[in-house]
Amino acid sequence: MKLIKTVAELRAEIALWKKAGKSIGLVPTMGALHEGHASLIKAAHAENDCVVVSVFVNPTQFGPNEDLDAYPRTLEADCHLAEVMGANVVFAPSPKEMYPSTAMTWVEVTGDVTKVLCGRSRPIHFRGVTTVVSKLFNLAQPDRAYFGQKDAQQVEVLQRMVKDLFFNLELKIMPIVREADGLAKSSRNTYLQPEERAAALVLSRSLKKAQEAFAAGERNGQNLVDLVSRSIASEPMSVIDYVEIYALPELQPVTTPLKGRNLLAVAVKFGTTRLIDNVILEA
Ligand code: PAF
Fold first, then answer.
1. What is the mean pLDDT of residues 215-244?
2. Ligand 1 atom nearest to 158, measured from its CA
3. C-alpha distances in Å from residue 274, one per residue of 72, 247, 266
4. Measuring CA to CA, which of 13, 84, 177, 255 is 20 to 30 A from 32?
5. Which of 264, 203, 211 is nearest to 237 (CA)?
């Protein structure tokens, strides 16, 4: 496996693969790789001739008071995991390499899909995501790109971007990977103190209650939101940012009764750590 740090070197490698007619899978990440990322790399390896894993803590998707500086950086361990899971290249550029000058072009999806849920408290976040992912798509020219369902809103935003900008690739969305006790895997879990981690289990427990109520026939979205909100609020360490339900695709207001695919999503703080989780409720 090759560790590549420059755009020029990545371009040269991709050109060789393209010339040889190889298919390419791209797994964009911000590093601090865990089993969730491993599942993406494994899928990319199974479905493509060559796999690029990008490891880049993208400054443009962090707001001024967010955790850009504190975000875990574990390149050596990331390279090891990427190699074990079948990556051919880890692309780990510097911020200067990805954003060489202060003048720059943004790629921005507008509309409710970027305004609700995390878009409300993180107004510049998705513009940063779509800009850096567009750069990565242009550099790696993948046939398939792999993302996790845990970032459900990101998935909807990227689907829209790929459609609108005619990116010639397939987005592959892989299921949420959880710890044995239900906590969704996240690079930010490393911030949690032991008592916060124990408290955070309320997220998967509460979403499971909603799934059970839905399976038992509950089709009122607000009732499901109330059920999850009450359950999370019963944990004293939790501070709810949102508990909301939207219709998929593209996070439209839900119908009553619920129809089609619906996303029930939560963002909750434990101490200084903000965690997200979600379930899809399909009628
Ligand atoms: O999901 C992430 O880790 C990031 O938002 C992504 C897609 C790698 C863009 O920086």
1. 98
2. 7
3. 15, 24, 10
4. 13
5. 203
